[in-house]
Design goal:
- The chain is α/β, with parallel strands linked by helices.
- Helices cover 40% and strands 22% of the residues.
- Helix 2 packs parallel to helix 3 and helix 6 crosses helix 7.
- Strands 2-1-3-4-5 form a five-stranded parallel sheet, sandwiched between helices. It has a four-stranded antiparallel sheet with strand order 6-7-8-9, with helices on one face. Strands 10-12-11 form a three-stranded antiparallel sheet.
- It is built from eight helices and twelve strands.
Length: 232
């Protein structure tokens, strides 16, 4: 099935360039010039992935992302940003973005990111039992429905956060490096973005741990990576 990508940017020429390239790559594209238009498109149209610029008039990308997440919690979103500060990228990830790419970027890199995000969102490469439910302490993970419950209450995770949690929870006690988690989450190796796993793990802890600063489940192995150590 052909995937539909919503390209959101207030720069008309950039939108056209991205749309034209993605169409040649086999995608259908829809364009929006601002955040409000993007939100309305998500409400009224079938969209498989959103490319969302941050700096836009009327409604910026952060606010649009918040609105999009309230409509479709699992819709993959890649942030497009001219900001290079790490804090700006972290803000986007914390708000639920699945990836980010900094302008200027190559269209080939953008295409690779889109493929990776779509692949993990649709779970095409998953090797888990679709009927399997993992239970550790107060956490219950349904691998077939992508649902996570803590103390009986559902928590909303991004596709990246879910993939990381599921990988760790399937083998409690095993230590995974950041690179291994990066490959599991993104489907491809992005060595320069390895440290972004720390941000995703930090977000996970805020959602599933009673005390994120003294975690029960997701433990840091300093100099190595992370392991899952909940009660069995």
């Amino acid at each position: 099935m052909v995937k539909r990508v919503l390209v959101v940017d207030d720069e008309h020429n950039l939108r056209e360039m991205i749309s034209s390239y993605l169409q040649n790559e086999g995608y259908e594209t829809v364009e929006a010039a601002n955040g409000d238009s993007a939100v309305q498109t998500v409400k009224n149209d079938q969209i498989d992935l959103v490319l969302l610029d941050i700096m836009m008039p009327e409604m910026d990308g952060y606010e649009a992302l918040k609105e999009i997440r309230s409509i479709q919690k699992k819709l993959p979103v890649i942030m497009l940003t001219a900001k290079t500060d790490e804090i700006d990228k972290i803000v986007g990830l914390e708000m639920g973005a699945d990836d980010y790419i900094t302008k200027p970027f190559s269209l080939r890199e953008l295409s690779a990111r889109i493929k990776a995000v779509l692949r993990r969102a649709t779970n095409e490469d998953s090797d888990v039992d679709e009927d399997e439910i993992l239970e550790h302490g107060e956490i219950m993970i349904n691998l077939s429905t992508y649902e996570v419950f803590v103390s009986g209450k559902r928590v909303n995770l991004t596709p990246t956060e879910f993939k990381i949690l599921a990988m760790l929870a399937q083998k409690p006690g095993r230590v995974y490096s950041r690179l291994q988690l990066m490959n599991a989450a993104f489907g491809e190796t992005y060595a320069n973005y390895e440290r972004s796993i720390d941000t995703h793990v930090s977000n996970l802890r805020r959602k599933v741990e009673n005390d994120p600063h003294n975690p029960t489940y997701i433990h840091t192995m300093y100099g190595i990576g992370y392991r899952f150590g909940g009660e069995l």
